[in-house]
Amino acid sequence: MEGIINFLKTDTFLLTSAIAIIILFIGLVILIITNIRIKKQYNKFLRKLGNGSNIQEDLQKYINDVEQVKRQNGEIMTLYDGMKLNLKSCIQKTGMVRYNAFKDVGSDLSFALALLDEKNDGIVLNGIYSRDVSNIYAKPVKNGISTYTLSVEEEQAINKAVKYDYKEQ
Predict the structure, then answer these.
(1) How far apart are CA 41 and CA 38, in angstroms?
(2) Which residue has the higher pLDDT, 35 or 11?
(3) Long-range contacts made by residues 36-43, C-beta under 8 angstroms, separation at least 24?
């Protein structure tokens, strides 16, 4: 152990250490210069590949755009789900029957009109026209049935509405 300590105290060790440090420093400088050259060549390559613009910047912009589209798509899907839920209670089915309420009035000017939602809930309107007066009556409909007494024309209008498929129109 004393031999090693004595060797570390000699000028030969100091000279060897100094030469090793200088060689390592030169190697470090060479690595830094090489790294700078490679980085310049890489940036030049990316500019050529990107037709004058930096492709790395273009890729980052593209990634940001994709993330923004994903966020917007999520918002749109949330809005769509809400609209889809609201649509169930909107009028989706209609049925209309024109008829002649009185023999002395021609042209089928009276009508029965059923307006129903997805669950066949809604109203049936009956417009009765005569020469002297015209009346409109409304009756509620639940599950395609009304608790009120219905005329033949009102039942026909409801049946048309229940069978109506807006997707086929």
Answers:
(1) 5
(2) 35
(3) none
